[in-house]
Specification:
Elements: H1 2-10, H2 21-27, E1 40-42, E2 45-51, E3 59-65, E4 68-72, E5 96-100, H3 111-127, E6 131-135, H4 141-155, E7 164-167, H5 169-180, H6 187-192, E8 204-206, E9 219-223, H7 231-240, E10 247-250, H8 259-263, E11 269-271, E12 277-279, E13 283-286, H9 295-305, E14 309-313, H10 317-331, E15 340-342, E16 360-362, E17 380-384, E18 387-391, H11 396-399, E19 408-414, H12 419-430, E20 433-438, E21 441-446, E22 450-455, E23 458-464, H13 467-485, H14 487-492, H15 504-519, E24 524-527, E25 532-537, E26 540-545, E27 551-553, H16 556-573
Parallel strand pairs: 4-5, 5-14, 6-9, 6-10, 7-8, 7-9, 10-13, 14-15, 16-18
Antiparallel strand pairs: 1-2, 2-3, 3-4, 11-12, 17-18, 19-23, 20-21, 21-22, 22-23, 24-25, 25-26, 26-27
Helix pairs in contact: 12-13, 13-16, 15-16
Length: about 575
Amino acid sequence: QWYQRRVAITAGEERGILYTEKDLDNSLDKIETMNFHEEKEVNGIKFWSYNAGHVLGAAMFMIEIAGVKLLYTGDFSRQEDRHLMAAEVPNVKPDILIIESTYGTHIHEKREVREARFTQTVHDTISRGGRCLIPVFALGRAQELMLILDEYWEAHPELHDVPIYYASSLAKKCMAVFQTYVNAMNEKIRRQISINNPFVFKHISNLKNIDQFQDIGPSVVMASPGMLQSGLSRELFETWCPDARNSVIIAGYCVEGTLAKMIMSEPEEVISITGQRLPLKCGVKYISFSAHTDYEQTSEFIRQLKPNHIVLVHGEQSEMNRLKSALKRQYEDKKDSPLEIFSPANNEEILLNFRGEKMAKVVGRLASKKPKPGDVISGVLVKRGFNYHIVSPEELQHYTDLSQGVILQKQTIHFTAPFSLLHHCLVQLAGRVEQVEHSGKNCLRVFDAVLIVQDKHKIVLQWEGSDMNDMYADAVLTLCLQIEANPHAIKQSSLRSITQVKDKSTFEEKLHRLLVEMFGENSVTFQPKLKYITVVLNGIKAVISLRSYEVQCAEESLREMVISAIKRLHVALTPVNVPTIAVT
């Protein structure tokens, strides 16, 4: 749906946004958390993350598909600031590097220099009786600027009577996160936390709304949004811009077409949201605290990683082209390590060819018959050096030093009820029960897996250990205990209604797992919110209602298989009612 919506918008067939608030809500259940450097694998795709240094929690992802490694930086910064550590340089060389190009060939000024310019501009504005507006984004730069201002105010007692506000409900929520995850920041912050929490500010207070703000005398206000499009930062700007004593400090990246970008060229007047012309007499300073890499950081990062292919993203076309040209000039003489650089437009496809496929040779009994297209070959994949072989488990010892083992499990329980009653109940549970003889004793075999041996005042359950067989054995064991506990009640009543299960969510999850084991992950769809499970086998669909546990299916054999699975699981999870025996 998202892809179709994107294509439609791109083609001009409709106007609108790519996703809605409902789409966001539906995505929440699919979000999983992971640690930095923790490797995960989904459908053969491996990925892990590195610290990106952009904002708290920002991550770069290394993705490996069929042996080809791709690093996606997202927004990242290789410069440590007051609270964040610099982005890591992965110790794995990527084949493809997708990297941001926000600042193109620009070079940031040194951190100490920009902090000094920032605090001096604020101090000068206050000294002449003006107000200082700092438009900020709620997360990342706002916290950095607050650390700088709080430290500067503490060192200058003459400023203690001048209030500093940060006005953003989202920034306030972010502060709670910053105060919690201090250990995820740089070493300076981690050392300071042993003395006091640096994000509990002494000289800065939160401004919930404009009605609480008393605009009397000099003050410093950090307000969102960061590009003055609307909101409180825009409202304060339009109020303060006609006064030459006031200042606006643009501390982050600004997109072309925004008011923040426009006032950096210091026009004589600006247009308010209501359409009025306002004189621009206040001072405008651009002091970038943006946590994006500049040219020096980007080129050094590429030099250390040595990728063969670079894709530039997240930048205006002009900046991307400048960065692309500069990188080409830098690497044009290095014939030993050719470098391809791409700067695609939105929705433009890039095709790269890799010899990343691995071939596995089928040997032994599995190779006795030539497979046809679409045939599934099941065996054990064995890797020796760079060679791969697929062999049947029974032939492992012929081609490797490994051998196949079988765990035979036994469970003996006291049982005095009639064996015929057990036979009857097992037929209700499993459908088909096979009567066999084992060591001269009467036996029953159910699920083609569990052997039940009759002995004097006891029965013995035997089965080969596996996930499925263990589940079958649990179901049989539970049934045997129920019969032994109250054989007369078993004769008179069937299993409790499945709809009376107390913990339905647990039952639904275990039913989903059982059906996946039986039919395969791609054949089973679990919809807990819609209260149904769908099983598709050879094009035939069975739908299980999780409210009534009724099964609808056009094919009777598949329907019976699913009903039998539900009954087996219900027996396995039904508590055994053991009668109380008084001992005197």
